[in-house]
Amino acid sequence: MSMLFADTLKKLRTEKGLSQRELAEKMYVTRTAITKWESGNRLPDAAMIKRLSEVLGVDVNTLFSAVAESDECPNIILVDDNAVILNGGLSIIEEVIPNASVTGFTKPSEAIEYAKAKRVALAFLDIEMGSISGLDVCRELLKINPHTNVVYLTAYREYSFDAWDTGACSFMLKPIKPEDVKKQLKKLRYPFFVGGEEP
Fold first, then answer.
1. CA–CA separation, 92 vs 68, rounded Å?
2. Strand ranges (DSSP E) for 85-177?
C-alpha cells in the first residue's frame, strides 16, 4: 500500500476544495483513477505526477518524494558482468538497505527487461560490460523510468566525465563498500525510504 502518497494527494485535493470528480476532470482521467491513487492501490506515473503538480499548484518534488517514500520495498538492481563482484556487492547493498528487493544481473539486457516489468528505484551499473556499456544501460533505464537513480561502478576514475552526460546521480569506485553505498544514498536525485538506520 502506498499510503504516504495517497494521504498527501487527498490532503492537497481537499485544500484546493476539489472533489475527486473535479480533480479527475482537470487531470483528464477517470474518477476511478483518483480513487485508486487516494486509496493507495495504485501510484500514478511520472507524467501524471507532473500534471497533478500543475493542477494542484504544488512543487512536483513534493509529490515525487511522497511516491518515493511510499515504496515500502524499493527495487534495486546491480549490473556487473563479473559474477564475483556481483555476488559480493549484492550482500553489501542488502546490508545497507535492508527493506529493499535487491536483484543482480550479469547481462544488461536482462536488467533492462526487469526494469520494464518493475519500477527500479536505484541501479548500480558497471561501466565496462563487453558489447554494451553501463552508460548505454543508464540511458535505457531512464527512458523506461526517468526517476530511476543511477550510480556507476568502475575501477577507473577517468570514466567519471563520460558518466555525467547520461543523467546518472553519481559515481562509485570498486570494490563496493558499505560506507560508500551509504554516501551514495545521500546523493540520490529521487530519495526513497531505505529502512534500518539512517545512512
1. 22
2. 101-105, 120-126, 149-154, 170-173
Roughly what angle, to the nearest 10 degrees, separates helices 3-15 and 31-39?
120
**Amino acid at position 41, single letter:** N
The dihedral region occupied by 113, where left means phi > 0, alpha psi between -120 and 50, and beta the remainder, is alpha
Q: Could you identify the residue written with the cell 569506485?
A: 173
CATH of the domain at 60: 1.10.260.40
Q: How many CA atoms lie within 13 A of 116 on its CB side?
A: 8
DSSP state for residue 176 in the 8-state scheme = P
Q: What is the pLDDT of residue 70?
A: 60
63 lies in the same domain as 100: no
Task: Say if CB 126 and CB 88 are below 8 A apart.
Answer: no
Question: Is residue 167 domain-shared with residue 91, that is, in the same domain?
Answer: yes
Residues 30 and 100 in one domain: no
User: pLDDT for 16-48, tens place per residue?
Assistant: 999 999 999 999 889 998 998 898 777 787 788
In the numeric block, the cell 558489447 is attached to 131
SS3 state of residue 146: coil
Number of domains in the chain: 2
The CATH number linked to 181 is: 3.40.50.2300
Backbone angles phi, psi at 154, to 5 degrees: -160, 160
Closest CA to 77 of 121, 17, 140: 121
Average per-residue pLDDT in the chain? 86
Q: Are 96 and 185 in contact (CB under 8 A)?
A: yes
